[in-house]
Specification:
Elements: E1 8-9, E2 12-13, H1 14-20, E3 27-29, H2 42-48, E4 56-62, E5 71-76, H3 81-84, E6 92-96, H4 104-111, E7 121-129, E8 144-150, E9 153-160, E10 183-187, E11 192-195, E12 199-205, E13 210-217, H5 222-235, H6 263-274, H7 279-291, E14 318-322, E15 331-336, E16 339-344, H8 345-351, H9 364-375
Antiparallel strand pairs: 1-2, 3-11, 4-5, 4-6, 6-7, 7-13, 8-11, 8-13, 9-10, 9-12, 14-15, 15-16
């Protein structure tokens, strides 16, 4: 099963894609992944929406003469089997999150997109729709690859949007009320559409067997970063750390007024707060924050496959930060699902590349961390040691 990051998208080298398109402009690529075939059909994916442990949604569109004024309804899964019997013939979509955690072949597909940093990758969401099925004209705050798995979907690419872009009122989805079509594409099985963050897009199924895989990326807002990082740093401060007046700060001031907050006081507090945001503390927080699981692991798999090597499990997110070179250049901190371990840089680089490791290749301190990863089910355990080799 191929887990090697892609070097080409169709005929386009990944290096050229990153240079000319990534976070800049959309790109549509015919037959982007060569001979890739979808491992699941629409019925398989829709069946996953029945499961209690699977995060899923049902989107139903009530159409009008003006597509921008359709009415939308959303239901959260699990979806009762009887509900399928009451669905309309068209204009609905079933969304299933974290397909990569349930289907080994989809997890291998996700690995092929690791030419983007691992900690940015989120999950693979699958959509299933009959003719006319859509989630409406919208934009996302993150980059996304939209891979057509089966059937056909018509895509429209629109304007660049922001927080002020008008959306439908009282709607469960963030549906745009205005859409300026700038390009159109018809996606067939194997075709790939890349959409940068904030670019409006609108996909409508053109067949009754339309399934699309969305490979999304985490892009935390700076408001979230500032809020959560400041809370983390504040939790590390003793209650004894408080503001104190500078010695003779006001008694020697001829212009002293008891009602004034001097600029010097505001400047001092700002400088003290800024000093807390050291690169080391920010990196430690980022490692935990960006590897935390956003959802529970689904308790279902589409196929039982025997692990071929000791490698990160499908439910594990990993990243590392390197120690200060002047301190210890061969050490690193590995973060897995929000937890951290101090290990060798060699092990950190290997495990966070989602490639095979062999415990005996590493010193005892590393083996202790590896054993804890095994206990936490963060590593696949092969049935044979023959696969315990370096790539």
């Amino acid at each position: 099963m191929n887990t090697i990051p892609l070097r080409f998208l169709g005929d386009l080298p990944v290096e050229a894609f990153l240079r000319d398109y990534w976070q800049q402009k959309p790109l549509f690529i015919k037959n982007a992944l060569g001979d890739w075939k979808a491992p699941l059909d629409g019925g398989d994916i829709a069946g996953l929406a029945l499961e209690e442990s699977v995060e899923s949604r049902l989107i139903i569109e009530k159409t009008t003469s003006n597509p921008l004024k359709s009415q939308w309804k959303m239901e959260h899964g699990p979806i009762d089997e009887e509900r399928f019997d009451t669905l309309p013939e068209n204009h609905f979509t079933i969304l299933v999150q974290a397909l990569d955690q349930m289907c080994p072949e989809v997890h291998a597909l996700l690995n092929q997109f690791r030419f983007i940093p691992n900690w940015r990758l989120d999950d693979v969401m699958a959509s299933v729709a009959p003719t006319g099925g859509s989630v409406g004209p919208h934009f996302d705050y993150y980059d996304v690859f939209l891979l057509q798995a089966t059937g056909t979907r018509q895509w429209k690419i629109g304007q660049t949007c922001n927080a002020q872009s008008p959306l439908q009122d009282d709607c469960p989805l963030k549906i745009l009320t205005d859409f300026d079509t700038q390009a159109e594409y018809t996606a067939e099985a194997g075709d790939l559409l890349y959409i940068p963050a904030n670019v409006a897009h609108w996909g409508v199924s053109q067949s009754d067997d339309c399934t699309t895989y969305s490979i999304g990326f985490r892009a935390p807002s700076y408001s979230d970063i500032l809020l959560e990082l400041s809370q983390e740093l504040a939790s590390q401060l003793s209650n004894d750390v408080r503001y104190r007046d500078q010695a003779n700060g006001f008694s020697d001031n001829a212009n002293y007024n008891p009602g004034e907050i001097p600029h010097a006081v505001a400047r001092e507090i700002a400088e003290r707060c800024q000093a807390l945001f050291t690169p080391e503390k920010v990196a430690a927080w980022l490692g935990k924050y960006l590897t935390e699981a956003k959802r529970d692991t689904p308790e279902i798999t589409t196929s039982e496959s025997e692990p071929e090597a000791m490698v990160l499990a499908v439910n594990a997110r990993a990243a590392y930060t390197q120690a200060d070179a002047s301190n210890n250049p061969i050490l690193a901190t590995v973060f897995i699902n929000g937890q951290s371990w101090r290990v060798s840089l060699a092990l950190a680089q290997k495990i966070c590349s989602y490639t095979t490791i062999c415990p005996s290749d590493y010193p005892q301190a590393d083996q202790t961390a590896i054993n804890e990863w095994i206990e936490n089910d963060y590593l696949n355990l092969p049935n044979t040691t023959d696969s315990c080799t370096n790539d």
